[in-house]
Specification:
Catalytic activity: (S)-4-amino-5-oxopentanoate = 5-aminolevulinate
Structural class: alpha/beta
Helix content: 25-40%
Main location: cytoplasm
CATH class of the largest domain: Alpha Beta
Order of helices and strands: HHEEEHHEHEHEHEHEHEEHHHEEHHEEH
InterPro entries: 4pyrrol_synth_GluAld_NH2Trfase (IPR004639), Aminotrans_3 (IPR005814), Aminotrans_3_PPA_site (IPR049704), PyrdxlP-dep_Trfase (IPR015424), PyrdxlP-dep_Trfase_major (IPR015421), PyrdxlP-dep_Trfase_small (IPR015422)
CATH superfamily of the largest domain: Type I PLP-dependent aspartate aminotransferase-like (Major domain)
Number of strands: 14
GO biological process, one term: protoporphyrinogen IX biosynthetic process
Strand order of the largest sheet: 4-10-9-8-7-5-6
CATH topology of the largest domain: Aspartate Aminotransferase, domain 2
Bound molecules: pyridoxal-5'-phosphate
Radius of gyration: 22 Å
Largest sheet: 7 strands, mixed
GO molecular function: glutamate-1-semialdehyde 2,1-aminomutase activity; pyridoxal phosphate binding; transaminase activity
Strand content: 5-15%
Distance between the termini: 51 Å
CATH architecture of the largest domain: 3-Layer(aba) Sandwich
Oligomer: single chain
């Protein structure tokens, strides 16, 4: 060790270095969440200086129309004045109490009002915590250990749920990440999404061992997939018959596709639901809730332990309440769907003109662009899309000032702030980018 390093554990470089080079040196992969590193599209991520409405401003001064929307939360666009004012107001009263406060009650009442299936709700700080806790609760409530998830559905990064691959209905899950004990993975059965007969086969073989089925009712984490009509109803019927809890993970879709999420759109009542993203208004919040008799199994009323130092954080709760009240006031869902269709139609027309097979599943403000000749119904299908072509589109769009998801397997998001000039310009630029492919 050189002398001058001894007193400086993080020596400042003599030469100015790019932010990403500095980040790579001190943060694994340079990022605090993997997809931000652009590995699946190549290149180096930009750094955001600020975000306003539909646009991000990068550290090198570029303005980008943003279709990532902080991966879902920013349904009102970035830095909305009403949400900012709510946070500023809460800030005058303190940043964390570690004790009950009125805001928690108000947010719980708002959530239960829009999600009739949620009779009681517990707040936490991320979607990962919400799904992890819902699974523990389902196991504690039913006294069963095994759960079912579907390939391509992402439910955060807890051990039981970070398992994607599985071949055949009864194949035991394989860990999707290093560090997950095989014994844990064995308790998670992975089935293909959108496949009634795979479900039937499992429940015939295992009629009374499954604690819960967790599903993204519309899948947004392998691109965007809307299941076939009747699939969710079939799942509801089977789980009810077998005493298995049905958990809708609506962290992404809750308040985004309808105030009451996919369960409102499809008129299905799950036993438990998980929320996050929009309900935090851009600050860290998650929630899980459902039937009172199940929720009452949680500590302190029941034996299933779950807790959080920052759960119900007053700033995050204030931001969430402001975001939900704004949704109630504006009821922007028809408008968002119009924006979604405009983008879908523009992309499809450009691809048709160019002779490139493209699928654009879209519902309201969620969409994705699959370079695929077939409509995408599941994970296996999604993986057959041309990801290299998507990477080229991503960079062509970025060069034209439009930020699409930096992966072929992520959904795109639209906000109310995209209405007007931003969506028109984005459609033009995305069409031009497709034309350049
Ligand atoms: C984002 C997401 C999660 C995880 O939420 P985090 O806040 O990132 O932990 C869980 N489920 C779904 C469906 C999601 O989209």
């Amino acid at each position: 060790m050189k002398d001058n390093e001894r007193f400086s554990p993080n020596p400042i470089e003599a030469q100015p270095t790019s932010l990403f080079a500095r980040a790579e040196k001190r943060i694994p992969g340079g990022v605090n969440s993997p997809v931000r590193a652009f590995r699946s599209v190549g290149g180096t991520p930009f750094f955001v200086r600020s975000a306003q409405g539909a646009t991000l401003t990068t550290e090198d001064g570029r303005e980008l129309i943003d279709f990532v929307c902080t991966w879902g939360p920013a349904i009102h666009g970035h830095n909305h004045p009403r949400i900012r004012a709510a946070i500023a107001d809460a800030l005058t009263r303190g940043t964390s109490f570690g004790a009950p406060h009125a805001g928690e009650v108000e947010l719980a009442e708002l959530i239960t009002k829009f999600f009739p299936s949620i009779q009681k709700v517990r707040l936490c700080s991320s979607g990962t915590e919400a799904t992890m806790s819902a699974i523990r609760l389902a196991r504690g409530f039913t006294g069963r250990d095994r759960i079912i998830k579907f390939s391509g559905c992402y439910h955060g990064h807890s051990d039981s749920l970070l398992i994607k691959a599985g071949s055949g209905a009864l194949t035991h899950g394989h860990p999707d990440s290093a560090g997950i004990p095989a014994a844990f993975a064995r308790e998670t059965l992975v089935l293909p999404y959108n496949d009634c007969s795979a479900l039937d086969a499992v429940f015939t073989a295992e009629p009374d061992t499954i604690a819960a089925v967790i599903i993204e009712p519309y899948c947004g984490n392998v691109g965007f997939i809307i299941p076939d009509p009747g699939y969710l109803a079939h799942l509801r019927k089977l789980t009810a018959k077998h005493g298995t809890l049905l958990i809708f993970d609506e962290v992404m879709t809750g308040f985004r596709l309808a105030p009451g999420g996919v369960q409102e759109l499809e008129a299905i009542t799950p036993d438990l639901s998980c929320l996050g993203k929009i309900i935090g208004g851009g600050l860290p919040v998650g929630a899980f809730g459902g039937r009172s008799d199940i929720m009452d199994a949680l500590a302190p009323s029941g034996p299933v332990y779950q807790a959080g130092t920052l759960s119900g954080n007053p700033l995050a709760v204030a931001a969430g309440i402001a975001a939900l009240l704004l949704l109630e006031e504006l009821n922007p869902y028809a408008q968002l769907d119009t924006l979604g269709r405009q983008l879908r139609d523009a992309a499809l027309a450009a691809a048709r003109a160019k002779g490139i097979p493209l699928q654009v599943p879209q519902c309201g403000s969620m969409f994705s662009l699959f370079f695929n000749a077939e409509p995408v119904r599941d994970y296996a299908n999604a993986l057959k899309s041309d990801a290299a072509l998507y990477a080229r589109l991503f960079h062509a769009a970025l060069a034209r000032g439009v930020y699409l998801a930096p992966s072929a397997y992520e959904a795109g998001f639209i906000s109310t702030a995209h209405a007007g000039e931003a969506i028109d310009r984005a459609c033009e630029q995305i069409s031009a980018a497709i034309h350049e492919l």
